[in-house]
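To: structure desk
From: M.T.
Subject: fold request, one chain
Message: Could you run this one when you get a chance? Sequence is below, nothing fancy, just the single chain.
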Amino acid sequence: MSEPVQVLFRLLRGAQAPGPAVRVARLLLLGALLPGALSAAAAQTDALVVHARVVEVVPVTRSERVAEAVGDCAPAHPGAGAGLDRLLAWDLRSECRTRVTTREIVEAYRVRYRWNDHEFTQLMDSPPGDRVPVRLVVH
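Reply: Done. Structure tokens follow.
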């Protein structure tokens, strides 16, 4: 057994309460004892990837006003030979209305998650599931 693993064993054996240092030591020990417990990228950068529990997901939206024509807004011109009444009806057309609506567009998601008795918030492009991966860098 390598010396760093022996140090981790001693730290865990003498720990009274599972504080943050003990939890990190357990993760390090797990990574040292179980090949494949760390992802290849995390192992190369001295980082651990853990999964934190998602507490809340709130869509971040913006409002957009949309104007649209409703009704017969482009009737065909009656033509040169049409009578005055048809020309006036075409010119004074009242079937065309503009309706303005507002719609909400989701731009991101504000995700609040909990790991190691601490809460963190991050903006994400898509809604996560029950857990989010968190990269822990070990110095």
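Reply (cont.): The beta strands are 47-70, 97-115, 118-124, 131-137. Let me know if you need anything else for the meeting.
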